[in-house]
Design goal:
With 83 residues, this protein is α+β, with helices and mostly antiparallel strands. Helix content is 17%, strand content 28%. It has a single domain, classed as 2-Layer Sandwich (Alpha-Beta Plaits), CATH 3.30.70. The chain starts with a helix and ends in an 18-residue tail after the last helix.
Length: 83
């Protein structure tokens, strides 16, 4: 992570609370519908996130293989929608 910060690739990141502490928000027929808990019943849960910026998918994958969580869990590499 220090290398990613030194390279200026890390834009944001943080740990997330447990899925059972989440609130799912949806809007149906113009009204908010709230539900406690995770949006999915998956066995795997998102523990945190790092928003990184790279010029290519290859660079992002290379960084993901060096991320500390790659040896303990799964890293999902996903592009952002353009503004």
């Amino acid at each position: 992570m220090q290398d990613l910060e030194r390279r200026g690739a890390r834009r944001a990141g943080g740990r997330l609370r447990l899925a059972d502490e989440a609130t799912v928000v949806r809007v149906r027929d113009g009204e908010p519908v709230l539900r406690s808990g995770s949006r999915t019943a998956d066995a795997e849960q998102i523990a945190g996130f790092d928003l990184l910026e790279f010029d290519s998918l290859a660079d992002a994958v290379e960084a993901a293989t060096g991320h500390p969580m790659a040896t303990h869990g799964t890293i999902e590499v996903r592009p952002l929608w353009p503004d």
